[in-house]
Amino acid sequence: MAEQLRALRDQIDAVDKQMVELLSRRLALVEQVGVVKSQHGLPIYAPDREAAMLASRREEADRQGVPPQLIEDILRRTMRESYSSEKDSGFKCLKPELRSVVLIGGRGQLGTLFGRMFRLSGYEVKVIEKDDWSQADEILHDAGLVIVTVPIHLTLEVIGKLNKLPKDCILADFTSIKSKPLKAMLDVHEGPVVGLHPMFGPDVPSLAKQVVVCCDGRGAEHYQWLLEQLGIWGASICNIAAEDHDHGMTMIQALRHFTTFAYGVHLSKVKPNMAQLLQLSSPIYRLEIAMVGRLFAQDPNLYGDIILSSQENVDMIERFHKSFTESVELIKRGDKQGFIDNFGKVSEWFGDYSEQFMRESQNLLKQAHDAIHRG
């Protein structure tokens, strides 16, 4: 038996080595694709091409008795690496005549990421940090694009200092709230203005498939090239009114971050054995606890600013507290039928999204399970 296993495992090892060689060849080809895309200004993410390729490979896998989902999982992971590799080839510069790009707060994590993207596209990038304001007039006098990427609580103050920009300069911001910063930019600058919100952190390997929210301010025809440049980097642009954006962020960011914060605070008081929890946990709980831990590995000022950025956020959290209290009272009464009735109402409200989220979460849980090592 040992000899049989050894012989089979040697064959498996040989196949694995061939797979590594094939992946190396594929990545080399991707680098060449990146060069061509850079030369012609094509986006690194082409959704139609990706969908067609995956459908074709799934059919081929099925014909050969290979689970279609297996080849899709392999290809999606490979493509993620490919998108990261493609960006190293640089990108076509859509506005070569543009004067300097100035990132205010450009040495922060998000500013550093976008500074690199602009430089990879051939733009001249300058940075203003808090100690550079004595030189700000000199840096800003010939700016073609100014992006404010500072903490939320400093954003309006910084925008207020930008009253001497060239008239044709584009003024933008990356703040996670939009209404107040957009109004402030429109008040201080008479040229093109746009509010942007990158819906991702600075640790993304590439901008492929990442969402950047765009809230129109003034002179869209003058900053359209900027949106197209983001598209070349792989980002998907979501156009929305500033007020609608902020309403959405109340749910997506403020309430979600607050509930995660509250759960983490509770855990720190209960003090469970974390190693034991992980040993006992299913993939879904491991993901949930990982998202809690992820929050507390980051800057508390950022999350405090997001949660406390508007009265609407506070009001929504209070409404959540009321709903939570009502649910607690239901459990305290031992009202199982009440629980079932509420469950049914929520399920009905989700509608078809429930099944969609079930499918999406199953794929996530498979990946989470694969990453777990049980010693």
Automatic annotation (TrEMBL):
Pathway membership, UniProt: Amino-acid biosynthesis; L-tyrosine biosynthesis; (4-hydroxyphenyl)pyruvate from prephenate (NAD(+) route): step 1/1; Metabolic intermediate biosynthesis; prephenate biosynthesis; prephenate from chorismate: step 1/1
Keyword tags: Amino-acid biosynthesis, Aromatic amino acid biosynthesis, Cytoplasm, Isomerase, Multifunctional enzyme, NAD, Oxidoreductase, Tyrosine biosynthesis
Keyword Oxidoreductase: yes
GO molecular-function term, one example from the UniProt record: NAD+ binding
Biological-process GO terms, alphabetical: chorismate metabolic process; tyrosine biosynthetic process
Residues annotated as domain Chorismate mutase: 1-90
GO CC aspect terms: cytoplasm
Domain of life of the organism encoding this protein: Bacteria
UniProt feature coiled coil, ranges: none
Name of one Pfam family that matches: CM_2
The protein, known as: T-protein
Encoding gene, per UniProt annotation: tyrA
